[in-house]
Amino acid sequence: MRERLAAGPLAPRPPRPASGDAPRLVHLDGRALTRPQSFDADVVIVGSGPAGATVARSLAARGLDVVVLEEGHAAPPESFVASGLTSMARLYREMGTSMALGNNPMPYLQGVAVGGTSVINGAISWRFNRETLDAWVSADPGLAGTLDPARLKTHEDAIWSRLGIAPTEDAVAGRKNQLLADGARALSLESRPIFRNVHGCLGSGRCLQGCPNGAKLSMDRSFLADAVHSGARILAGMRVSRVLHDGRRALGVAGTSAAGARFDVFARHAVVLAASAIGTPALLLASGLDHGPVGRHLTAHPGVSVTGRFSEPANNQLGATQGHEVVGLRAEGLKVEALGFDLSILASRVPGYGRELARGLAELDRFAVWGTALRARGEGSVRLLNGRPQVFYSLHPDDLVKARRAVRVMGDLFLAAGATEIYPGVPGFDAVIKDRATLERFEREGPLSPRAYAMSMTHLFGTARMGSDPAKSVVGPSFEHHHVAKLFVADSSVFPGNLGVNPQIPIMTLAAVCADLVVDA
Amino acid sequence: MSALGPTERAWAEALFEAILGPVEAHGLPPFASVDKTSFYAAIDHAPGPAFAPGLRAMVAAATFAPLADLRFRRPFFALESGARVRFIEAMVESPLYAKR
């Protein structure tokens, strides 16, 4: 085995086949698998999102026989539609109705498609920040080798290059992003066009419904395609229900196809879990692997948003979905982003009911929504209820102070950008704000009850955390399970904490390190 | 299995129409004219197992809540259109989280 493995950083993009024909992305769709079947591979990877795709690309390029299992189906650009509701029904887990329960019940969104959440995210790209890495290593010096900044940078640079990550161009930013830039400039707050993994963006504003132009380099259009070029097999429509193991070593995985047939995949070398910070701990727990704090220490970036109304069209549904961000408040744990929605989703953010809502809907193009991701102190967990994962998460009191501050900051930005009315959406305070004095009062006197804020949960981490101590972590610094050999976790479950920035690239970076260590195992 | 049965759909549509208000007065198509086929198809098949019971409970609670309010004393679908809007607005402004 070892001779087949050329160790090293992420390999360059493999050459296309001489024939010029790209191989089919999906080897088998589970809708066609109607009878029980067994497969085998050197490495089986559960999940085809950024983590699984990165591991698949790296290992396949080194000559390993790789199978990637994905619960969703292939979602090519020609299948994407503008309707937010239809898109969510097709591409989002539970149509986006999944809820984290706690002191402020919050929805969370996950993509279910070949490419995972990368198919329906805003393509926002950030590198690891050094302070976070230093803090993690300071808390657990045993992670120093894995999190070596130079090692990570080598992988980050390769990912950055392959995904063509670049700032959002003015030509496709659209009015809503320009308005946020205007507001930040007027307030002297540091802001910038968002760096995104897109190529040839037309500013259609449909990142969250799947890019109809194929401009977003989601995993199915980049790393998974590369992996398939190198011989990896993607089995879509295959839901994994447990890890097969003998208590000491992982043997493979088992599950059910979309057509209802049982399947198993035996792994000669390793099993890699990349099923998200919810799916991975759920799979471990369902497999009887409840060692250490599996499912616990869930951290996140809860998001709070504010709606503003302009006297001129803001065209919230047009232009780069998320093309501008305010980064000057990151030290406070706040990052403000312009949000782009389908009109039907935007309509749900228009204030009022009955006559007032009808008036607002008639002027839908005047409304814009901006959001702030909070680097929160809250913690939660993932548990199995009736065999299904349930997320529990509660905000820390400090997070509510941040949420209140975020609403005030977004209000200031809206006013500075020329908005005539701001709708904080916080029961117990003015429904409409028109001046900075009221925003200042909001920050002083606004409610600090968790249920006063309509928030959503983004960017989940830590539910199979990496560490040196098996009592305090689930996998070791090599990403291998502390108690079950040849079982690796590659996704954001292993992160010791949250990041304060959008995690797609950091997830891929750590997954690339994981791939190196899978080879060495 | 449908998330809402035929009767529950009728209750829900009365609620939706009141929430949206008189959109036709602002040049938008009236609620009754909107094709809801894709909406029902989506909620019938895509959400998780807790969605349908939760939606049914919410629709039933909102439909019969006016019975317990001396200002209304009828199920929601039996209220005239102005009362429907007033009831919705009262629910939205409630200090009770569960009611909102």
Explained architecture:
The complex is a heterodimer of chains A (521) and B (100). Chain A has 521 residues and is of the alpha/beta class. Chain A contains twelve helices and 21 strands. In chain A, the strands form four sheets. In chain A, strands 1, 2, 3, 9, 10, 11, 12 and 21 form an eight-stranded mixed beta sheet that branches. The longest helix of chain A is centred in the C-terminal third of the chain and has 20 residues, at 397-416. Mean pLDDT of chain A is 94; it is low at 1-18. Chain B is mainly alpha-helical and 100 residues long. Chain B has one domain. Chain B has four helices and no strands. Chain B starts with 5 loop residues before the first helix and ends in an 8-residue tail after the last helix. Chain A binds chain B through residues 83, 85-86, 88-90, 92-95, 97-99, 353-359, 361-362, 388, 427-428, 451, and chain B through 18-23, 25-28, 38-39, 41-43, 45-51, 85, 88-89, 92-93, 95, 97, 100.
Task: Give the overall pLDDT of chain B as a whole number.
Answer: 90
Rough shape of chain A?
globular
In percent, how much strand structure appears in the residues of chain B? under 5%
Instruction: Determine the number of helices of chain A (DSSP H or I, runs of at least 4 residues).
Output: 12
Major β-sheet annotation of chain A:
8 strands, mixed
What is the number of E strands of chain B? 0
- What's the alpha carbon Rg of chain B, rounded to whole Å? 14 Å
Largest sheet descriptor of chain B:
none
> Based on helices, strands and strand pairing, what is the structural class of chain A?
alpha/beta
H-E order of chain B = HHHH
For the termini of chain A, the CA-CA separation is 11 Å
Q: Estimate nothing, just give the exact number of structural domains of chain B.
A: 1
Gyration radius of chain A, in Å: 23 Å
Distance between the termini of chain B: 28 Å
Number of helices of chain B: 4
Shape of chain B: globular
**Which quaternary structure do these chains form?**
heterodimer
| Low-confidence runs of chain A | 1-18
